[in-house]
């Protein structure tokens, strides 16, 4: 299966190379950064497996949707506020995250499944079953 899913970039991210001055801030809502979790994609005999690294994410804060051949993963990572220590250095990100992929027609949307285990989301994208060739009998007049 070639080119089954194609990543789509979110409108905003927190990469070190971003230019903060290029982003407009609405007066009505505060500016929020959307992060992009790291994703690995594997091909199997049955289809593709997408693995997303989502430390600190619970199933309640995670949403996975398929619409119009687009697979979208979004949610939120919240840090517990009950810590008494003062934060000195932070690499563990909190806030919103988003990843979106265009699916090919080879993916069977009805059989997509997902599970979250130890901060890793595994999404199985099975192929549409292909019909087997059959011999057609020809009648002679």
Question: What does the model show?
Answer:
This protein is 0% helix and 38% strand. Residues 10-27 have low confidence and may be disordered. Strands 1, 2, 5, 6 and 7 form a 5-stranded mixed β-sheet that branches. It has a 4-stranded antiparallel β-sheet with strand order 3-4-9-8, with no helix packed on it. It has a domain at 5-13 and 32-79 and 87-126: Sandwich (Immunoglobulin-like), CATH 2.60.40.790. With 141 residues, it is mainly β. It starts with a strand and ends in a 15-residue tail after the last strand. It has strands spanning 5-8, 34-35, 39-43, 47-53, 62-67, 70-77, 95-103, 113-117, 120-126. This is Spore protein SP21. Residues 30-141 form the SHSP domain. Pfam families: HSP20.
Q: Which band does the percent of strand residues land in?
A: 35-45%
Which outline best applies? elongated
Q: Which structural class do the helices and strands define? A: mainly beta
| DSSP summary: helix tally | 0
Please tally the β strands and state the result.
9
What composes the largest sheet? Answer: 5 strands, mixed
Mean pLDDT, nearest integer? 78
């Amino acid at each position: 299966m070639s080119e089954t899913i194609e990543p789509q970039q979110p409108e905003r991210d927190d990469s070190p190379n971003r230019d903060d001055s290029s982003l407009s801030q609405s007066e009505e809502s505060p500016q929020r950064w959307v992060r992009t979790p790291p994703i690995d994609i594997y091909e199997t005999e049955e289809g593709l497996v997408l693995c997303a690294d989502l430390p600190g994410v619970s199933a309640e804060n995670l949403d996975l949707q398929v619409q119009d051949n687009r697979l979208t993963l979004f949610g939120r990572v919240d840090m517990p506020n009950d810590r008494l220590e003062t934060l000195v250095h932070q690499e563990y990100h909190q806030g919103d995250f988003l990843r979106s992929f265009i699916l090919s027609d080879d993916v069977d949307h009805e059989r997509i499944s997902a599970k979250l285990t130890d901060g890793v989301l595994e999404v199985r994208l099975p192929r549409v079953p292909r019909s087997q060739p059959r011999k057609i009998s020809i009648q002679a007049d």
